[in-house]
Every structure is written in C-alpha cells, then in structure tokens.
Amino acid sequence: MALTLEQLNTADTASAVQLLDGLYEHSPWIAEAALAQRPFKSLAHLKHAMVQVLAQASPEAQLDLIRAHPELAGKAMVAQSLTAESTNEQNTAGLTACTPEEFARIQQLNADYNARFGFPFILAVRGPRGTGLTKAEIIDTFARRSFNHPNYERAEALRNIHRIAEIRLNDKFGYTPTLGNDVWDWQEKLAQHSEPGYAEKGQLTVTYLTDAHRACAQRISHWMRDCGFDEVEIDAVGNVVGRYHPAQAGAKYLLTGSHYDTVRNGGKYDGRLGIFVPMACVRELHRAGKRLPFGIEVVGFAEEEGQRYKATFLGSGALIGDFKPEWLEQKDADGITMREAMQHAGLCIDDIPKIRRDAAQYLGFIEVHIEQGPVLNELDLPLGVVTSINGGVRYVCEMYGTASHAGTTPMDRRHDAALGVAELGLYLEQRARQDGDSVATIGMLQVPNGSINVIPGRCLFSMDLRAPTDAQRDAMVQDVLAKLEEITRRRGLQYKTELAMQAAAAPSAPDWQLRWEKAVAALGVPVFRMPSGAGHDAMKLHKVMPQAMLFTRGLNGGISHNPRESTTSDDMQLAVEAFSHVLQQLAAQ
To answer: What is the pTM of this model?
Structure first.
C-alpha cells in the first residue's frame, strides 16, 4: 500500500524514519534530519527538505554518501549484494544484461573514474522520465563526465543522488508525475521532426518554414485540437494558435506560449516546454468541462532563434505589429527568399498585418521556459521566478595595429591588435562581475590572415553585454567603451565599433511576478528569484502588455542549445501545477 503524507506527518520519528528507509543508500540520517521540517505540504516540500539536509552536511558526510553507492555493473551487482532499490534501478537500465563488450567498457570506465575522483560514478539510471536510460546513454554519460573538474563532478554526483532519491520516493508514495510525463512525451515526439543532414545523425534542427518546421506546426495543431481548444489555426507567419474560450463571450484572454523552432543541433525543450505546459492545463480544464472567466490563447511561435533568416523573434514580433517587410527579401544559405519560403508553405503574406493583437483584449502574457543556465541546477531547485529579461547590446568590432616580424620587433615597439583585444576581454570579465547579474562576452575573435611568426596587425571581435535593467547595461557599456579607448590610446592602436543589436530589458510586471511566486510557494518549494540572461518571446510581448516568466531547472549543468539539454518530468509536473495555480489566482480575482 502506498505511503501518504498524512501517515508520514503524524508518525513518530522512529516510525517515520523507517517509512523513508532506502531513499539514500545506507544513509537514513538524511531523511531523519529532514523530518524536523514536518508537516510536509507536498512531496516536493519533502524532497527539498532532504536536499537542504545534504547541502548543509559536512564535505566528509557528503563524500561518505557518494561512496556508499555501488559501482554501475560492478562487483556488488555481480555478487548480487545490491540493495533492492539499486537492483531495481540497474535492472531497469539493462545493466544486468550487458554484452561482454559493454561490461568490459563499463569496468574500464569504473576503474578510470575511481582513479581520478576517488569515489564511484553516480548516475540516476532511471533517467529524467523515470523509465530508464539506455546502456548507450549511460556509457556516453560515464565517458563524458570522467573529464569533469573534480569539484564539479562531486556536486554532479550529489545531484544524481537526489534524483535517485526523488524517484525512489515517488515509488514509495505510488506517485506518478502524469502531466509532466505527458509534456515530456509531446516534446520527445515533436523532436522526431528534424532537417536533412541532421536527422540522419540523430540531431535536432528545425528552422523557419523547412519541411521539418511545417511538420512540427501540423503536429502541434493536431495535439491542440485533441486537448480541446475551441479554435486552432496556423497564422500568416506560421505561428500555431490555439484558443480556449472563456465562460462568457467577450471576456479577455490570457496569452501564453513560446517558440517551436530550434538552433542547429539544439535541444528538445528550449521554447517547446512553454507550449506544452499550458496545453496540458487546457486539456485538464476541457476534461473537467470547466471554463474560466477569461480565455486562454496558447501560441507556438514559428520563429525565435534567427537561424535560417536574420529575423529573430519573427513569430512574436508579428503579434505586436513588428514584422519588417524588408525581411521578405532576405535569402537563406540556398538563396531562397523568405517571401518564397512563405509562399511555398501556403502562408498568406498579405494577412500578416491582420494578426497584430489588440493588447486591450488580453490580461497579459506569461511564459514557461527551461532556464538555459546552471543556476537552478546548482541550487537543486526545480523552479525559478524571473524578475527581468536582460537588456543587451551587441557590437561587431575591429582593432588595428601594425603587423610586423615576431622575432625582430622588440616588445616595447609593438602595436599588437590581438593583445589589445585580450586586455579588453579581461576588463569585460572584471566589469561585469562588479554588478553581479551583468554578463559580458567576446564570443568571436579572429586574426585575419594571421601567421605564427607575425604580430597581429588586425583583429576582428564581437562584444555582447547584458544586464537586468537598461541603466545597468548602459553604465557597463559606457565603462567598456571608455576602457577600449584607453587601451588603444596606450597601446598605439585604433579601433572601429558597429552597434549590431540593442534590446531593452523587460522587467517582469510586479503583480504577474507575484502570481508566479505564490504558485511556486503553494507547491512547497522555495521561491527563488532570478534574471533571465537569454532573450525570450516575452521580451516582444512586454512592449504591449504585462509579462512574467517561470523557469524550470535544466540538467547536465543547465546546458542549452545543445543535444544534452534536459529536464525531468517531475520538474515539468511542477511547472504544470504552477501554471494551473496562476490560472486559479486569475479566476479568483
């Protein structure tokens, strides 16, 4: 019989510890210490209480916990001395049925890993969905993580231990993140559509109006109909729009959604999570035969990444009347204009002005998105409330010096363009750190026609500067440009800068941010506030209506725009529940 929170909350301490036995390998002290936080309002509350206990434990206690775990496909498995929980997990992943070659490979990885780190490799082999990783995924992860920095790998081991405990706890309570699993499955199925040249390699690439892109639009539109949306259409720029009507005609709508295009060889969750989370909420409303005092409009934005054409935020921009006609004449790498691509897709270009939304008909815009960064992952928090989307500027720059012989030019006679940029790069790092939430990057750096024995006379580089407010960003830009002037003057160099992009910061509307905070708190997990360093469709909608975002934790160091981008169905479940809570708040108001 499944355990209940009421049983756990009312049991005496000894009995409660026994009820939680086996969550952490041979380490009942974690659950015992976490019980001091009773009563637990949710499983998520209990899970985080145990995370806190381990975070506050000594490094020695953490290391003892890691070493209490058996090796994957190791001696304990062969000797059949694993705990029941570990046996189930290694069975689920197929590790008890390795081929001789697979077993030999894992044994070698175990030996190399232990020699490097001094503790066994820990991986939640039941995976982000709870159904088990493949042996190939396990071996690839094992090999990749063997090259991590020891401090990072130790923290990654602890994060995987928490994931193992989370799945074991779900089993004890007979809990399945059903809606999170559905959101997970939608994303997996949508990722089956990828472009030629990438699909054959198992890579995901979906750029604007390619065959794969149009297939994604069709798939999303069919799922929207299955979920019970009253109206579903693909609009004049390729956005997939689903509308769930309010209880009474004429009421306003809540606008939500995100993008379904990807970067080349990208991840499955960037953007798409923000389409499927509200879709799951609408489906549950429809199943219950329930209407709200407002309607819900979910938009799968056709383009956000600017991959095929230089027209970033095309989908959300069109909704606020920010579609630039000159974009139509842009050509892709094959010489196909956007106009031709839209005509081939059957889109009606003349209707683009008609899809501009009247902001007065909407309550606001909210968006769920994977974090695309390491913060939530490192804090072991499933959700983060976004305070602002950083404003940013991008510069394309050149530094000029004097190309001369590397052997005959004395150090005090040189005018090295590359070293001028190098000094500027170190200043960018220092200056951004002064603000905490500011970031600065030189992402492109090139010495044209450089030679090993020639002092660089010319250097091409870029600058990307971002901050949560425009004032903070502008102050940083001013300091960086002043430093650039000082460096070039002192080193006898010249420079040229071209402003390539400038985007205003998009602070969350306070009342909408508060709704997300209340929703997260109601789940029993801490409310963590953070800025978004990446741009999102919410930035465009911010120009015409209030907006606020919710982040979900990313795995693998929070990596994004990468095939290893991932999150768990448990975290997706919490995102669905938080979104539903926001709907309830709005309905009550």
So the answer is: 0.92
